[in-house]
Specification:
The chain has 98 residues and is mainly α. 77% of the residues lie in helices and 0% in strands.
């Protein structure tokens, strides 16, 4: 989230051209996500999206390699609740609370 928000803020300060802002933001987001996958992939298999985890579990049921139901049950709830937690993060970190 910090990469997306930070790159958006920097892109608006970089130029007034909306197309160039979008290009800068999307490039930074892709590179940031790539770094996260490379760093955290060995730990969690890079299961950042619950739909990907569920799809992998679904294909593993038919004999393909993938996550088990128990692993999917561990991965999916935190990833599903992350957007609501991230949405409340700026409010909790605002200067008015400190």
């Amino acid at each position: 989230m910090a990469v997306v928000v930070g790159s958006g803020i920097q892109a608006t300060e970089l130029t007034q051209d909306v197309g160039l802002q979008l290009l800068a933001n999307s490039t930074a987001t892709v590179l940031g996500l790539g770094v996260l996958i490379l760093l955290l992939g060995p730990v969690s298999g890079a299961h950042f999206n619950p739909a990907v985890t569920l799809a992998e579990w679904w294909t593993a049921r038919r004999g393909s390699p993938g996550v088990t139901l128990r692993e999917a049950a561990v991965y999916v709830p935190p990833r599903s609740s992350a957007p609501s937690r991230a949405r409340s993060w700026p409010t909790r970190c605002s200067a008015n609370r400190w």
